[in-house]
Structures are given as structure tokens and as C-alpha cells.
């Protein structure tokens, strides 16, 4: 089985210090959390950034400073900025970090309810537009799919030439509005992508570690972090993203799955580097 790629989603756009005081906002806090995750075994940092007061931003300069700070402490880590940003942002606002030419970025493959009255909007034309820009800049998209229909959308756009292979999916499961995070849901998602595609799973909240464990067994990859879950165990807040990554590493070791370095992750994902 391929080595395990661990992605750390250290910050997110919606989670706040009220949920867990260790959620990073400042450049220093973001670099600290990235380093903790990297040292624990993460090879990819999925990155959102904030203003110092915690409000989410997709500002290119803020991304530049945060990415430089991460790079200083984590020499070879893959930095994967979000193009999802936060609910309500415009397309141009969301796209800003790709102009820093990261190796990877997220590409959200459909619209979904996002709790309450929130809608995370990704029309077909938006997805095509983002995919085209990323292709032009040579950025590997991580195809974020929150439901099975979004896999089908990604496959259609791949067939039409908008999204280049090798395809790499991120099954985001357990969002209030997307597919749930039961074992049968993960089996269904994993069986719905082409055999030569790779996948990682993001379990939201209580689904995080059970789905991570399934992915380790099934040959998929794993994302954990404060963006998705702030607890290390039931009712106990995680001290850092590093603690969440350490838990995945422990489970993987018990199950006999080795952890990929960033360069090994590049090879598995077909990133030139
Ligand atoms: N914050 C969510 C609305 C992504 O990073 O591409 C979108 C999100 C997805 O987090
Ligand atoms: Zn994100």
C-alpha cells in the first residue's frame, strides 16, 4: 500500500478561538500550528488565513506573509491554499492565493447548504473558471467533494479537459448539508472514483478519527485539523493541530501504514515540485 499522506487543515475560515483557544489567527500562530503539524507527520498544510482579529480573508499579501512564515519553519512541506475561502466571498476574492503559484490548491466541485441560511456557492461555470486558472498556473487541484454528485461533476469536467489528471479527491464528509460520515458513505465515495485516482478523507467533527482510520485501512489518505474538528477525544479540546496529526500517526503505525514525507507525497500525487 502507498504511504499515508496526512494533510493538516490548521485554521479554516469558520472555527474561532471560542471553539478552541488554540485556533490560529496571527501569522505567528499560523506558522506555529503549521510547524506542530509538520513535525508530527503532516506533509500538506491546507491553508486559510485570518486577519489578526480572526476574521477570514483571502488577501493575497496576507497569504504571502503566512506562506513565507510557514516555509521558514517547514522547509519542504506542501502548502495548499484554499480557494473556497469563507461563505459569501466573491470568486476573485477567493482566487487570490493561486497567484502566488502554490503547488496545490483546493477546487470545490459544487454548491451546498452550509448550515442555517448559509450557502457555499460553486456553480458549474465557477468551477470551470477556477479550474482553468489553476491549469494555466500549473497548480494541482485538490478536488473537494462534499457529496457524490460533486464527484460526477469533477469527472465530467475532467472528461471535457478542464481538470487535468491524475485526479486527487478530498471527500469532505459530515458537513451539515453534504454527505454524512458513516462507513457506508465512505465506501460509496471511494468506489465512485476512477481506479487511478487518489483520495483523502476529511471527517467533520466526531467523524474525523473514525473516517481517518477507515482511510488508513483502505489505502486512502487523511486530513485532520482545527478546520474540521477541535477535539482530541470526546469533550477534550486538542492542544494543537500537531496533537491531532500525532493521533493519526499513532493509529497508522498500529495498523502498519507508513507515513509519507512531503517529497513522497509529491510523487504519489504527481506533483512536479
Ligand atoms: N470555508 C468553506 C466555506 C476550501 O477550503 O476549499 C469552504 C472551504 C473549502 O473551506
Ligand atoms: Zn478549507
Radius of gyration (CA) equals 17 Å
Q: How do the strands of the widest beta sheet line up side by side? A: 5-2-1-12-11-10-9-6
- Just name the CATH architecture: Alpha-Beta Barrel
Number of strands: 14
- Which homologous superfamily in CATH is the superfamily? Aldolase class I
- What are the low-pLDDT stretches, counting only 5+ consecutive residues below 50? none
Largest sheet: 8 strands, parallel
User: What is the general shape?
Assistant: globular
CATH names the topology as: TIM Barrel
Average of per-residue pLDDT values: 98
Q: Strand content of the residues, in percent?
A: 15-25%
Mind explaining what this structure looks like?
The chain has 273 residues and is an alpha/beta fold. It has one domain (6-269): TIM Barrel, CATH 3.20.20.70. It has helices spanning 27-40, 60-73, 91-95, 124-136, 148-159, 183-190, 208-218, 241-254, 262-269; strands spanning 6-9, 44-47, 49-50, 56-57, 78-81, 104-108, 112-113, 119-120, 140-145, 168-173, 198-203, 221-224, 231-233, 236-237. A hairpin with a 5-residue loop joins strand 7 and strand 8 (119-120). 49% of the residues are buried. The model has no long low-confidence stretch (mean pLDDT 98). The protein binds (5S)-5-amino-3-OXO-hexanoic acid and zinc ion. Residues 9, 12, 46, 48, 82, 84, 227 line the site of zinc ion. This is 3-keto-5-aminohexanoate cleavage enzyme.
